[in-house]
Amino acid sequence: MLLTAKILVLAMSGFLRVATGFDIGLSTKCVVIPKEMGMCHNIGYSEMRLPNLMGHTSMGEVIQKSTTWQHLVHTDCHPHVRMFLCSLFAPICLDTFIHPCRSMCVAVRDSCAPVLLCHGHPWPDSLDCDRFPGDEDMCLAPLTKDYKYLHKGSWKMPACQTCPAVEEFFTHKRVLEVFCDSNFGKSLLISAFDDPEYNIECQVEFIIQGSLLPYETQSMIQQWLLINEKCTERMTPTHRPMVYLLVGNIEEGVILVNQVYRWQRKDSQLTLATQKWRYHKCL
């Protein structure tokens, strides 16, 4: 039997069973999900089982191990990545454990493993999808298997890419040529903090017309910065706020940044290019 997150929350006071082979067989207790586990807040319940499904027996261990996954959650590499990880690190406090279905694990793994590799880490053996029950058993299943319709149809498989060079010396004519070879351009102020997100502070300016809405493109830029963290670190080596112009292509909902310009106050060439772009005709 498949359980959606909504049904699982409604069943908190009920009696659910899972296959005996998947019960860890330990005496457990209900504890409040700690504030340090931000990724598992506002998920429909506030108490978790300890030990959890990862075999962590102390809250200190749970916090330490789960913290390493919060960055992956922020990348939105899959619509169900948070649900999947929290069902393991902070399982809902019922009379028994409810595991994520194998199909959910496979879907999250196939989408998020490339992001982990982008950060230099393989998909861990501890999350081997073969350890989870099949869909014929009682387990936590995705709300829908048709992922392309989730998040109002805007979610797409994330892309890890080779870091583009950060250009500091250029002419406005060359910048216009790059604009013509791309289908989006965005100026943004990037501030890097200890928080797992990068704060895009300034108003985003569309340079190249397209069918995407501003909030969609900004969300995709945020995802790109998080997934391609090595590129972002190269852009902000001193962790000081800097203005950049990111230029690239969005194809089938996937964003690829082809050129990065550091926009300094004395950058008359870049300012001139953006002004001329409104009337520029590409060859």
UniProtKB/TrEMBL annotation:
Gene Ontology cellular-component annotations: extracellular space
Single Gene Ontology BP annotation: non-canonical Wnt signaling pathway
Cystine bridges: 40-86, 105-129
Keywords: Developmental protein, Differentiation, Disulfide bond, Secreted, Signal, Wnt signaling pathway
Gene3D superfamilies, alphabetized: Frizzled cysteine-rich domain
Positions of the FZ domain: 25-142
Family to which the UniProt record says this protein belongs: Belongs to the secreted frizzled-related protein (sFRP) family.
Name of the featured protein: FZ domain-containing protein
